[in-house]
Amino acid sequence: MESILLLREHKGGLDMEYEKMTVAQLKDLLRENDLPVSGKKSELISRLSELPSESTEEVLVEENLTNSSEEDNPSKEEVSVEENLTNSSEEDIPSKEEEEEEEDFFEDEDEDNDFYEDFGGIHTARQKPVLDEQTKINLKIRATQKKKQPAFRRQEWFRYKRLSHSGWRKPTGYQSKQRLNMKYRSPMARIGFGKISAVRGLHPSGFKEVLVHQISDLESVNPELQAIRIGSTVGNRKRLTIHDRADDLGVRILNRRNIDRKGDLQ
Question: Hey, CA dihedral for 171, 175, 176, 178, is it positive or negative?
């Protein structure tokens, strides 16, 4: 292992040297001084130039040598930042396009880091129902059957755009090619496409859905087997009270909304 000791001089004399350094090198210097590493290259340089210049600080950059033997002892050389940059060849100096691509890459990485910092590392798993083994097997069978089911499209959905957005309608025309089961038409919804009846009507998670419009409807809900779905006509004020009461009872809400608790809704 070989170590190269870099000395940082007065900030006024290194402004031009920071311009020649890459974004990765600038971020290494910022991390050594416990400074944020997000932003563009100009912002990184401004943070480094604002550092106090009372005395020179030593920043250690370690490089691993793969061909070093056990008998070889690590050596240290003290060189200035100017000597380290002047000894590099012209081929090693990245172009402006490469620096811009590197800046974009590190900016995306910083955004991901900010997301995990805001996340806090706390994950709340969704509540699962208490099911027997046979019900779990039946749910897997239903999921497999659903994958094989074709898309039931309305007659001539490809001809009129408004029909492509509508749901299924059974064709009733006397000469309807879809009703006559012509091969070049999409299949019709028939009883043969029905799923396993043992778990018919259950939510994909395994819960039995219960429609709720007021808080009193929660008292008869079994949180181990049932989950609630709040009616679409319920306002935000009552919806928030239902959310709080359901959390107290341990009942899962299938259509929970993210409502800002501000103003009268606090």
Answer: positive
